[in-house]
Amino acid sequence: MSVTPSRRDLLKSAALAGPALLSAQAVAAPASGRPAKPAVKAVLAPNSIPLSALPGHFDVDPSIRNLEAGYWSVMPRVVAQAYARHTEEVNRSNSIFARNVLPGEACLANGSREAQVAIARQVGCAPEEIAVARSGSDALQLLIANYRGLKTGDAVIYCDLDYDATIGAMEWLGTHRGARVVRFAMPEPATTANILAAYDEVLKRNPDAKLLLVTQVSNRTGLVTPVREIVAMARARGVDTIVDAAHGIALLDFQLADLDADFVAWSVHKWTSAPLGTGAMYIRKSRLADIDIAYENHNLPADSINARIPPGTVNFAAMLTIPLAVDFHFAIGAAAKERHMRALRNRWVDAVRDLPNVTMAVPDDPARYCTITSFRLKGMDSDEKAKAVQQRLFEKYRILTVWRTGVAKGPVIRVTPGLYSTQADVDALAAALRAEHAMFV
Hints:
By secondary structure, the chain is an alpha/beta fold. Helices cover 37% and strands 12% of the residues. Among the domains are: 130-330, Aspartate Aminotransferase, domain 2; 334-436, Aspartate Aminotransferase, domain 1 (Alpha-Beta Complex). It has helices spanning 7-16, 77-93, 95-98, 108-123, 136-145, 164-177, 192-205, 227-235, 256-259, 316-332, 334-351, 383-397, 423-436, and strands at residues 65-66, 130-133, 155-159, 180-184, 209-215, 240-244, 263-267, 279-283, 358-360, 373-377, 399-400, 402-404, 412-415. Strand 3, helix 6 and strand 4 form a beta-alpha-beta unit. The longest helix has 18 residues, at 334-351. It is globular and about 65 Å long. Mean pLDDT is 91; it is low at 1-40. Residues 88-429 form the Aminotransferase class V domain. GO terms for molecular function: lyase activity. This is Selenocysteine lyase/Cysteine desulfurase.
């Protein structure tokens, strides 16, 4: 007698299944007997994509120079094609796939497990320390809201350069869990010494602090913080740290062990170039009990990290595409990728360095920046003026940047080349800034 697995069984198998590669073929023939459309899995060897060929792997609108890759990444063509195939496969198989009734590997349990394995391989940790989330924002909000170490009156700390969604979650700890919320401003210039001094001062000033939010790469300015040192500083005072690594994972060449953090989350749809709606949560295995399960998610064992993700239907096709996106990352090579993105950033920054009315919002220290770099024009002292700069660059030069607010020192224009960007793209920005740098003076 055949038995269809229950939702509870499905979720348990997704959490506990052993490692398995996704099949190179499409899912098995549907119940109607019609053969499934075959799908060929791309083979991407590590370090096989030369940097000179990288832009050719992406299909982008050639009429606009898109220097706003910080929102999410364009999927490379091979990943986009795989995502389309997986979408078709999941749509055709429906709950036949999701209920794990198909033989072999063509089922949700193996697909979920393979996504965890791929992400763990990318960041250098155990698969059971990784949960796939709907986005980096979701994963970070869950870590913050479900942190169990707070009691009424404990201080929680964040800074002005943290991400809006995480700031909202930290403020929620104040309004809903009785925490005392402390906000401080990142110093400018944000040298390594100044950054560490600012965190040291705020921790000393708040000896009742229990939780600290640290952003590895600021979405506002592009500042790269010395995470490992900050984590150690907080830990020495009995303060736990949650790290937002959304713009660090798959862009900076590092592993999670280099941060030495217990709780980290990020967006897989950013620099890993996976489909939209994919994120990841890391909890060090020894600290799992310090993050509560999500919304009483008893569909999964309490000792599974996946119980920290709310139950519900996700974009299965996006999840299935994650392993190939990770393969593409390794096909470029982490060190080569970071080197390439730094070179694009340095090319336009160096080209406008002599302009008296252009100021970078990050220090001139390679340890404190990577790809994202924000600038200010002299006289750009309001959100309205920052919006005007973004509009001028787009309407006159067809260059997309984005203005960012929330920085204590004033609004900025964020520039984020993508993996698809060319030298011509950043040269066009430099030329536009040379023409427009005095627009407010």
